[in-house]
Amino acid sequence: MIQEQIFEESSGNVFSDLGFDNADELFTRGKIAIQVIRLLKQRNLKQIEISEILGISQPEVSHLLNGEFQKFSEGKLLNFLKRLDIEITLQFRSRNGKQDIETAITL
């Protein structure tokens, strides 16, 4: 007997789909952390070198590289990007497009 597979369409935020209360925050952290990890892997650095660049301990580097990004705030993750010499631009705009608040700042 073949069992029919059931698929559920994602909202685009796995944390929301799993019912986490802070799903938006976790999703944002995840997106930033993925960029940090991608940049670190491109540089082919040892964990001790990463530790020195990011200003964190080697065990914290291990947590980051293992995807345990929830241990870091959005601010800390953005600081990692800055330490990796990445220019960060934040763009602000109304979600519904009704307010004219579109602006951007560079960190």
Provide tags for this entry.
mainly alpha; 434 Repressor (Amino-terminal Domain); 5 helices; two-stranded antiparallel sheet; 107 residues; 48% helix
In short:
48% of the residues lie in helices and 7% in strands.
What is the SS-derived class?
mainly alpha
Poorly predicted ranges: none
Assess the beta-strand content as a share of residues: 5-15%
Global shape: flat
Terminal CA distance reads: 59 Å
Quickly name the level 1 CATH class.
Mainly Alpha
Quick one: how many beta strands?
2
Report on this model:
This protein is mainly alpha-helical and 107 residues long. It has a single domain (21-106), classed as lambda repressor-like DNA-binding domains (434 Repressor (Amino-terminal Domain)), CATH 1.10.260.40. The protein contains five helices and two strands; from the N terminus they run αααααββ. It has helices at 14-17, 23-43, 47-54, 58-65, 74-83; strands spanning 89-92, 103-106. The chain has a two-stranded antiparallel sheet. The chain is flat and about 55 Å long. The chain starts with 13 loop residues before the first helix and ends with a strand.
